[in-house]
Fold this protein.
Amino acid sequence: MAGMKYILRVLCVVSISTTRMAQGTTDFDLATTATNQLAVELHRQLATGDENLCVSPYSIESALAMTFAGADGETRTEMARVLHLPENNTAVPAAFSALQHSLEEMRAKTVELVKESKKFGGPGEPITINIANRLFAQKGYDFRQDFLSLVKQNYGAAFEPIGFVANPGAAAQHINKWVAEQTRDKIRDLIPANALNKLTRLVLANALYLKAPWADAFSDKTTRPEPFHVRGGAAVDVPMMRKTAQFGYAKREGFTAVSVPYAGGDLQFLVLLPDDVNGLRALESKLTANALAESAKLEMHEVDLHLPKFKLEPPTIALAKTFQALGMKTAFDIPRGSANFDRIAPRKPNDYLYISNIFHKTFIAVDEKGTEAAAATAVVMMRATALARPKPPPIEVKVDRPFVYAIQHVPSGVCLFLGRVTDSR
């Protein structure tokens, strides 16, 4: 259609329930570092009020890494800068492939762990993990085979022809159904009504579902009402889990870090707790990718931990303006005519791809048994332990005020989820 721009949509979905993962390789360092750097920047952009927050940096970075593979010229330069990726390094897709592989190894590892641990009262179920990528592409559109091959080989993204032109509403429903299936129904209606139209040409989807038990579950019997300072203000009683055990622990300037391991030991739930009841903002202002990486391997201590149960199901958020504020403008065709995704499909003066929006949706639940979490991201583009010694008393940590949390892969340090809890009710 002369004079019109087509729409490319990229969808990334991640659903997670935590447990640790094991992988010794460093092949994924590039992907890990980039993801954590973006994580901190997104958190700063989005944590502006006093509400709860849940974001999957891994989901967003993965979806945009697939999109980045198709970018060229100034658009590629800007995306590289914002996503913290080397502009012309062919190792980028391989790094994300290695990271995905390390995540997928968890289930096999914990299946064997469960077989043995059941004899001694250990975790009764393995980690459940599902990572799926797919390209939902307009039938008959001129996509470059090199791009399709790259995302298939490195991201396992199957190519599925779909009729955006014939019925964009039905196409959106089909993609949302796929997202829901991949995330065990935790992420529903990711793509809002009317977000796709007859100019949509591609949705790149990344779905991850991860569910895992704690390495050592909390007892339901020890959960009882305890005060939590909602949004840093008045205390309200909430269900508070309690356990004394060996946890990762460190006292930092202005905050305490505590990590709770999931089955298998390669994934952890990380809590960053400010010293002051209303110290969340100060903590978030000093949050860095290095601080997150250092928290992946905290020294073990005997800790008496009080941790609130919580479940967050925020609505879909649109991230276009967030990424534009971070400096990714030409990808959104700002100024008009500047978007360059020639590596996805041939760029013509009156027929080219650009991102029109990025949709993201998450789910996370933390209870006595473990953590379940999910996330989805859609990028929309348009044609236009040590030996025992005498033990000191356990360190008491009461998570009774707003805090930052992460679900973190221990071997790499990558944050699959990053957010804040200001109200655990």
Remarks:
- The chain has two domains: 6-213+312-382, 220-309+389-421.
